[in-house]
UniProtKB/TrEMBL annotation:
It catalyses: a 1,2-diacyl-sn-glycero-3-phospho-(1D-myo-inositol-3,5-bisphosphate) + H2O = a 1,2-diacyl-sn-glycero-3-phospho-(1D-myo-inositol-5-phosphate) + phosphate; 1,2-dihexadecanoyl-sn-glycero-3-phospho-(1D-myo-inositol-3,5-bisphosphate) + H2O = 1,2-dihexadecanoyl-sn-glycero-3-phospho-(1D-myo-inositol-5-phosphate) + phosphate; 1,2-dioctanoyl-sn-glycero-3-phospho-(1D-myo-inositol-3,5-bisphosphate) + H2O = 1,2-dioctanoyl-sn-glycero-3-phospho-(1D-myo-inositol-5-phosphate) + phosphate; 1,2-dioctanoyl-sn-glycero-3-phospho-(1-D-myo-inositol-3-phosphate) + H2O = 1,2-dioctanoyl-sn-glycero-3-phospho-(1D-myo-inositol) + phosphate. One of its GO terms (molecular function) is phosphoprotein phosphatase activity. It is an enzyme of class 3 (hydrolase). The active site is at C375. GO terms for cellular component: filopodium; late endosome; plasma membrane; ruffle; sarcomere. Belongs to the protein-tyrosine phosphatase family. Non-receptor class myotubularin subfamily. Residues 1-40, 579-603 are annotated as: Disordered. This is Myotubularin. Keywords: Cell membrane, Cell projection, Cytoplasm, Endosome, Hydrolase, Lipid metabolism, Membrane, Protein phosphatase. Its EC number is 3.1.3.95.
Length: 603
């Protein structure tokens, strides 16, 4: 058993201690002999193994297991091969081979990860070497299944910024100009009595009483009533979110719900109908009637128009990601790459989510109409649509801090089921509730950042870091399914926020091409021709793909080309707007001459 003493070092050193050469299979080549550990991280065991690297062949080494990570260091390679994997990333641990296995390296462990890679370790058959490491790994990778706390509760890192201070709901609503004479803040859910998956503070129409809200809650799935997410500063049209109405097979109606939607429509003086975007395919919404759900029918809601966005459910998305993983890890089949990628339907799903969000944003901005967004329960596809539409319409959310607020607000506080969708600390890898909904959202944000390279303050590393710590359980940010459960577990008191790490070293996550602009709406092109597979995330573990990536000079040139294309597109927008060919079109804050000057400066 290895010593449990923890070396002292700066809490940021693990993030910044990148080796002299890093391969995309997650192995670092470095000369430093010290095993990095975070404050609060303790070594549990270590064992001699052979890492069956799918790219470089068998690697003899020693694997160290702590209460946070699996850390492998080679013993014969020069330079040293290092594998550094947070245990929260592990989805499944299986025993490979049995006592009668005779093939070379046929006895050991297979580890399936949530971040698009698998690990295989061969062990000696003598003694109980496999049983010991299997039991330790299972215990610390799946703490919830063993009545243990997440590592986040043991993490003793210190940061210069307190990430828990980033989001204050009242401050965010005030930034939007709320409350006002048409919208009010209600504390009816202060103790989560109205809806246990909603935040304690909600914004609702001024003319709706708390008694009205209780009656509406009875007719909405999980009591998730329509509440305000965002208000347009000029048109005063709003984005509302909720869950499906409980119509059922008998076509039930609820006068309070019908009246409440009318109050929402009237809140911005709107004469036209309220637009309802149901994220589901039509056939799924109809099928939901059999389980007591449904949608807003024309007879019951004559002042509303309903559109289905054809975004598939969590099970379809889970299978799509599985297919994607099959074609990107460990090897990419070049000869059938395009057809293989198409068969996963992953980019098709990204397209549908982006297309839906564009419709929401355009209706609020150009159509000057309030919209109501829901799916079934209002915590998966609904969060994707509202947050992406808000990102398109509000430049604040394109800053580092603004994006953190967006994630805290639309995803974390409004009850996206992170624990269920990711399976934090849970050994039940086949749980049907698991699904890459948040990953899809981040992918959509990346697609937007590629099309608008100057519009976002944050860079690609910012998005990848968020996804890495979505799984790591190093921070409390994404733990548990709802605000009420986080409050019960005292997450903000007992754990650190991911935003503490990021905001303490912002320069690492800052886009050098960022140009601050106000009130510029971004409408990405959501056609398959303009969408790309995010290679630097999905195929980052493959060193051969890494070798094919452009060198820094080529990368800089490509970024400048994208920058130029973005400026040209904006110049065209301005020209068309000045000629009044596109009414209500968004315009850049910079003049055409200023833009061209900036482009020439870069080149």
């Amino acid at each position: 058993m290895a010593s449990s003493s923890t070396p002292k070092y700066n809490s940021n050193s693990l993030e910044s201690s990148s080796s002299k050469r890093t391969l995309k299979d997650g192995t670092n080549w470095e000369q430093n002999e010290e095993i990095p550990r975070l404050p609060g991280e303790t070594r549990v065991t270590d064992k001699d193994v052979i890492y069956m690297c799918p790219f470089n062949g068998p690697v003899k080494g020693r694997v160290y297991i702590t209460n946070y990570r699996l850390y492998l260091r080679s013993v014969e390679n020069d330079p040293v091969v290092v594998l550094n994997v947070p245990l929260g990333v592990i989805s499944r641990i299986e025993k490979m081979g049995g006592a009668s296995s005779r093939g070379e390296n046929s006895y050991g462990l297979d580890i399936t990860c949530k971040d698009m890679r698998n690990l295989r370790f061969a062990l000696k058959q003598e003694g109980h070497s496999r049983r010991d490491i299997f039991e330790v790994l299972t215990k610390y990778a799946f703490p919830q299944s063993h009545n243990l706390l997440f590592f986040a509760f043991a993490n003793e890192e210190k940061f210069s910024e307190n990430g828990w201070m980033v989001y204050n709901p009242m401050s965010e609503y005030r930034r939007q100009g709320l409350p006002n004479e048409r919208w009010r803040v209600t504390f009816i859910n202060e103790h989560y009595g109205l809806c246990d998956t909603y935040p304690s503070l909600l914004v609702v129409p001024y003319n709706a009483t708390d008694d009205d809200l209780k009656k509406v809650a009875a007719f909405r799935s999980r009591n998730r009533i329509p509440v305000l997410s965002w208000i347009h500063p000029e048109t005063q049209a709003v984005i509302m979110r909720c869950s499906q109405p409980l119509v059922g097979m008998s076509g039930k109606r609820n006068k309070d719900d019908e009246r409440y939607l009318d109050i929402i429509r009237e809140a911005n003086g709107q004469i036209s109908k309220l637009t309802i975007y149901d994220a589901r395919p039509n056939v799924n919404a109809v099928a939901n009637k059999a389980t007591g759900g449904g949608y807003e029918g024309e007879d019951a809601y004559p002042n509303a128009e309903l559109f289905f966005l054809d975004i598939h459910n969590i099970h379809v998305m889970r299978e799509s990601l599985k297919k994607l993983k099959d074609i990107v890890y460990p090897n990419v089949e070049e000869s059938h790459w395009l057809s293989s990628l198409e068969s996963t339907h992953w980019l098709e799903h990204i397209k549908l989510v982006l297309t839906g969000a564009i419709q929401v944003a355009d209706k609020v901005s150009s159509g000057r109409s309030s919209v109501l967004v829901h799916c079934s329960d209002g915590w998966d596809r609904t969060a994707q649509l509202t947050s992406l539409a808000m990102l398109m319409l509000d430049s604040y959310y394109r800053t580092i801090e603004g994006f953190e607020v967006l994630v805290q607000k639309e995803w974390i506080s409004f009850g996206h089921k992170f624990a269920s969708r990711i399976g934090h600390g849970d050994k039940n890898h086949a749980d049907a509730d698991r699904s890459p909904i948040f990953l899809q959202f981040i992918d959509c944000v990346w697609q937007m950042s590629k099309q608008f390279p100057t519009a976002f303050e944050f860079n690609e590393q910012f998005l990848i870091t968020i996804l890495d710590h979505l799984y790591s359980c190093r921070f409390g940010t994404f733990l548990y399914n709802s605000e009420s459960l986080r409050e019960k577990e005292k997450v903000t008191e007992k754990t650190l926020s991911l935003w503490s790490l990021i905001n303490s070293e912002k320069s690492k996550y800052t886009n050098p091409f960022y140009t601050k602009e106000l009130n510029r709406a971004l409408y990405p092109v959501a056609s398959m021709r303009h969408l790309e597979l995010w290679v630097n995330y999905y195929i980052r573990w493959n060193p051969r793909i890494r070798q094919q990536q452009p060198n820094p000079v080529e990368q800089r040139y490509m970024e400048l080309l994208a920058l130029r294309d973005d400026y040209i597109r904006r110049l065209e927008e301005l020209q068309l707007t000045n000629n009044s060919k596109i009414p209500n079109s968004s315009a850049s804050s910079a003049s055409p001459s200023q833009m061209m000057s900036q482009v020439q400066t870069h080149f």
